[in-house]
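Please review this one:
***
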Amino acid sequence: MHITITGNLGSGKSTICKLLSEKYQFEIYSTGKVQRELAREMSMTTLELNQLMRSNHKYDHMIDDTTAKISREKADKDIIFDSRLAWNFVEKSFKVFISISLDVAAERVLNDHRGQEEQYHSFEEARKMLAERAATERVRYQEIYQVNYMDYSNYNLVIDSTYCTPDRIAEIILQEAKEYEKNGCPNTTKILVSPKRILREEDIHKEDSLELESLIDEYKKITSVLDAGIKVTKKDETYTVIEKTREAKAAYLAGIPYISICS
């Protein structure tokens, strides 16, 4: 099994990849580590290297060629590809995107120790730099490969890490990957988010409590992912529930870790 994992900056994808490697004996290939090493060797920040790579594509092609080669030569091995674009180069894989809110991502990287080339001095700086890096990468990949890695339709599973532990996410990814293979590798996209990501506390009104009581009791019995297909729209960081608002509120109150959403 080959699983390709990408995601928003600060989403915890490298930690999740490491857990999949340690707990389930997958080999791991990380292009992020290669890029950070290149930045360190060149005495640059990762943002500065990204900007350089826009005009000099040899680093991109070096990383991409190696990724494709590994996937071909180790087709019979269980491998996790921790890579921004491995989904585009690995011939057959379960494609995963890990999303996160920008505010939580900024808090995480601010408190993380990523070396001299990726240090931040305040929450505001971390948030700004993450947004700039993401924008730079998006433009660069569009220019080089004509792909948008932020387009969720490129992936089989999109899972949000804002309110969930890496261990739980690793378990769900493996579970979904096995289901994907069992079903014949369908070309579909499942998007899983916490109800807390699409609703706020102020969205849960006291007058809803009695009305939702029966649904809450039902949802409390659910121990796996709730596949309710809540219809939403998303603008920047904000989700708006369009359909099944009642179910979304009940899931929120019942503490359901994940629900499936669609647009």
The beta strands are 2-7, 27-30, 79-82, 94-99, 157-160, 190-193, 226-235, 238-243, 259-262.
